[in-house]
Structure formats: C-alpha cells, structure tokens
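User: Study the shape:
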Amino acid sequence: MSVSTKERVLRAAAELLADGGRDAVSTRAVSAAAGIQAPTLYRLFGDKDGLLDAVAAHGFTEYLGRKQQLAATDDPVADLRAGWDLHVEFGLSRPAFYVLMFGETGRVTEASRQAAERLNHMVTRVADAGRLRMSVARAVQLTHATCVGVTMALIAADEPDLEISAIARESMMRTITTDEPQNGDATVASRAMALRTALPPAGRTPLSPAEHALMTEWLDRLADAR
C-alpha cells in the first residue's frame, strides 16, 4: 500500500478528530473521508485502535516539531518555563489531539517516547546547572503530571483562565528549582544531586553495572530526601 494512501487516511482522521473528537473517528467515516474502502484501512492500521495510535503519533509529531523550534538558551530554568507554555498552548489549540495523546493511559508511541526524552533532557540541564532541588526522575514526573493536569483542566473549562497555568507553573518551578545554583557544601540532598548529575554512564566508571545501578538509586533517594 502506498505511503500517499496512508497519509491521506491520517489527514482525514485528523480532520475528523479535530472537528468532532474521538467519537467522530469511526472506520466508516475515515474510509469515506479518505476515499478508500474499509478493508484498505484495516490493512493499513489493523483496527480502530491502530488508527487512533497512528493519529496520536501524528499529533505528537506536530507537537515535537513545535518543541524543536525552541532553541536552548544559557538559562535552562527559563527554557523549562518556555517548554511548559508551549505544552499548554498546544493543548488549547488542538484539544482533541491533546486528549487523545495525553488523556488515555497506556498509549505509548515512538513520538511520545521522544517527547518524554526531551522533557528529561530539559530537566537534566537544570540539574547540570545546579538548580534542581530533587532527582531528575522525580522532577520530570512532577512537571509532566502538573502540566498535563493543568492543560486538561483548561481544555475542560468553558472559559479557560490562562493565569491558572502561570500560577501552577511558578508553583511547580519553586518546588523543583532553586534561585541560585546549589553548591557542594549546601545540603546532603544537593551534594547527592550534584554527584548524580556528574556520574558517568554505566561502563565508564570503575563500578560494575550492579554497583552503578545501586549508586544511582542511592543518590536519587538522597536527592529526593526532604
């Protein structure tokens, strides 16, 4: 089956999703909009869930394209703020895509994996600058959960109050970042975070893989200690 046919089906499904939400993306409606027979759609995507996975990947590709337009600056904390704002803006501009992409548990695509890696990279840059209060893993989880929750709430609101996003963003930033770089003699947590960030990958230290994994776990736990 030609790539052009698959792209035509994805465009048709994306338009139906944008206009009518998930319920509008039926195999019959997509087939009719794309000018193909239902068996062709099944050969391309397997079933409706397969089609929705492909549409979600299509939405993530657009989202990642916007994220990649954000050039990194010498202030990783400001970059993280900009990433938050872009995330919320995308959700409000493409709500049906956003709900499909972030509102359903268990939906994992290559594009969603790349999005998670990009957030991890942004938070790691904050840690590298000595500005992170906790482990990268915990900060990533907190950032993702907070931003997605806020965006979902704004999508559901009759009149979204964008100031809520700014308030939640700054609350989250105060929780995970510091105004000044943490230096080595500040706290046990900051020392652990500094060492965790500087620790080379497994295989590039004198530690065995098991020892490296254990060291990483210990440092993350110390970095998250309150």
User: Anything to note?
Assistant: The two ends are 56 Å apart (CA to CA). The chain has a mean pLDDT of 84. The chain is about 70% helix and 0% strand. The chain has three domains: 1-46, 55-181, 187-226.
